[in-house]
């Protein structure tokens, strides 16, 4: 991704741009080109003066930086054939967009010093999106907020075509809506408009089922956002008990606006949130206090496990049998899926066995059964969400008053399928059995070389797998695979182990079966699970 760098706080006492530049080149990348110089560093009068095109000293540095990735320019430089300022700027623009070189600016966010120069650099170096206003509308929702009456307002970036008032949008996963209003940002405020077109950002109202990340048009089929699953969960309570209902409503709104927030209901009735880390928990608590006026307390966060099928299990409950109080037949098979595949739902029954008088089409009926299956899989044999599985609808039937004896009875309704599907699924899941799996993280540690051995001893004592170790002067980088349950302890100990110099980055690396002791049970039931 093309990247510009901005060094902040040049007005602070002790500010030293040269030292920061040297650290960037040593620890991040040597491919950095300062685009100006700081004046009066360390004072309130500190400023940033951009180099002018044609400045001889800057042109020399620019040529040397560009020549690292341009053999023709290097040859001309060695032969003493200088390039024009326009040619150098053209090459600089190309290398920035190819992620080969990164312009560096400096200033102060507090005083605004250097910000105009940075803005000019963004306009000059970062590529703009083509505005293709023809063809079908294509865009993506990147933010959802609530209006004064509690209605959803979707922020959308348009890539192609246009969206007008009363446009019907397919949002994915069976969700759709009709645009009731369009607003564009103009003159520092949002103003009502009739359409939002390619290359623009607009606000759409009327989409009650919209979620962050929804795409429509071509965008719905490509470039889907994927978020790693959360690894922690914690129950949350209002400090003032009378604000309990308001807390639930606020959490529901935040979950609509942010795909990284998951909200569940515990067996004790308390709301529970899924988390990616302690910082997210702190931000969530601050948001509830500042934006909703609800002060909250979190219980100690626990690791969020999942369940995976061990083998294949099948179950069927048929019409007009003693074990079936509902007027429907459902048969399901549960089998292991590929790691990180989530749920794959397959329909293997003929259309004539489906109650199409209820659901109108094979796709609609299959979608309804899949919805019931997904809800039931939120709570497995040990209480955790079941994932990475293939669920196949193997049998289906409905009853009618004038049908054959095996299918004769009151006409089947959608209620019968909604209630029967989770019962059959739990039977099939019980026969397949499940593994309880814990999340595993790939952790990158950047520590002073003299402390690397001590850090390595600590993480290997916890059973971490050392994936790589590289040295770079005074820093050593360790890459380890660590169970998520140990991350908080590592974060707590790292400052003491490294004198405050250690840096930790983490990313999700899958799940593995719990190997220590009995599988943990989860008593909290996700909201809406059967």
How would you characterize the overall build of this protein?
It is a single chain. With about 525 residues, the chain is of the alpha+beta class. The chain has five domains: about 5-125, P-loop containing nucleotide triphosphate hydrolases (Rossmann fold, 3-Layer(aba) Sandwich), CATH 3.40.50; about 140-220, Translation factors (Elongation Factor Tu (Ef-tu), domain 3); about 230-295, Elongation Factor G (Translational Gtpase), domain 3 (Alpha-Beta Plaits), CATH 3.30.70; about 310-430, Ribosomal Protein S5, domain 2, CATH 3.30.230.10; about 435-515, 2-Layer Sandwich (Alpha-Beta Plaits). Helices cover about 25% and strands about 30% of the residues. It has twelve helices and 30 strands. Strand 17 (about 260-265) and strand 18 form a beta hairpin. Helix 2 crosses helix 3 (about 70-80) and helix 2 (about 55-65) crosses helix 4 (about 85-95). The two termini are about 45 Å apart.
């Amino acid at each position: 991704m093309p990247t510009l760098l901005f060094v902040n706080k040049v007005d602070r006492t002790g500010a030293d741009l040269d030292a920061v530049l040297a650290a960037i080149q040593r620890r991040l990348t040597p491919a950095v080109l300062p685009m100006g110089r700081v004046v009066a560093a360390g004072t309130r009068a500190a400023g940033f003066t951009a180099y002018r095109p044609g400045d001889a000293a800057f042109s020399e540095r620019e040529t040397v930086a560009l020549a690292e990735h341009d053999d023709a320019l290097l040859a001309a430089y060695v032969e003493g054939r200088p390039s024009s300022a326009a040619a150098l700027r053209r090459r600089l623009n190309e290398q920035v967009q190819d992620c080969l070189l990164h312009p560096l600016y400096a200033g102060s966010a507090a005083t605004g010093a250097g910000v105009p120069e940075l803005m000019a650099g963004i306009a000059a170096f970062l590529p703009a999106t083509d505005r293709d206003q023809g063809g079908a509308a294509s865009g993506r929702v990147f933010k959802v907020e609530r209006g004064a009456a509690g209605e959803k307002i979707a922020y959308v970036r348009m890539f192609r075509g246009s969206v007008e008032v009363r446009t019907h949008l397919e949002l994915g996963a069976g969700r759709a809506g009709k645009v009731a209003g369009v607003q564009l940002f103009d003159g520092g405020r949002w103003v009502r408009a009739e359409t939002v077109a390619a290359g623009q950002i607009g606000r759409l109202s009327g989409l009650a089922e919209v979620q962050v990340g929804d795409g429509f048009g071509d965008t719905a089929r490509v470039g889907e956002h994927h978020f790693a699953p959360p690894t922690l969960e914690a129950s949350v309570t209002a400090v003032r008990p009378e604000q309990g209902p308001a807390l639930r409503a606020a959490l529901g709104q935040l979950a609509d606006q942010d795909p990284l927030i998951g909200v569940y209901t515990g067996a004790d009735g308390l709301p529970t949130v899924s988390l990616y880390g302690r910082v997210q928990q702190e931000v969530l608590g601050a948001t509830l206090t500042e934006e909703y006026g609800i002060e909250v307390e979190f219980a100690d966060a626990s690791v969020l496990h999942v369940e995976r099928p061990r083998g294949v299990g099948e179950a069927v409950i048929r019409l007009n049998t003693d074990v079936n109080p509902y007027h429907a037949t459902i048969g399901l098979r549960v089998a292991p899926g590929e790691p990180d595949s989530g749920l794959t739902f397959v329909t293997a029954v003929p259309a004539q066995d489906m109650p199409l008088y209820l659901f109108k089409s094979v796709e609609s009926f299959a979608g309804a059964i899949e919805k019931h299956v997904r809800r039931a899989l939120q709570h497995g044999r040990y209480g955790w969400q079941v994932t990475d599985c293939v669920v196949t609808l193997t049998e289906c039937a409905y009853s009618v008053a004038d049908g054959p004896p095996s299918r004769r009875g009151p006409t089947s309704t959608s209620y019968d399928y909604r209630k029967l599907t989770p019962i059959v699924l739990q039977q099939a899941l019980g026969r397949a059995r499940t593994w309880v799996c814990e999340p595993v993280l790939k952790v990158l540690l950047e520590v002073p070389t003299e402390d690397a051995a001590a850090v390595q001893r600590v993480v290997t004592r916890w059973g971490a797998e050392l994936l790589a170790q590289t040295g770079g002067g005074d820093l050593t980088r360790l890459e380890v695979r660590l169970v998520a349950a140990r991350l908080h302890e590592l974060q707590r100990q790292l400052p003491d182990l490294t004198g405050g110099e250690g840096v930790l980055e983490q990313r999700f690396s899958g799940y593995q079966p719990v190997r220590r002791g009995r599988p943990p049970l989860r008593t909290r039931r996700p909201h809406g699970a059967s």
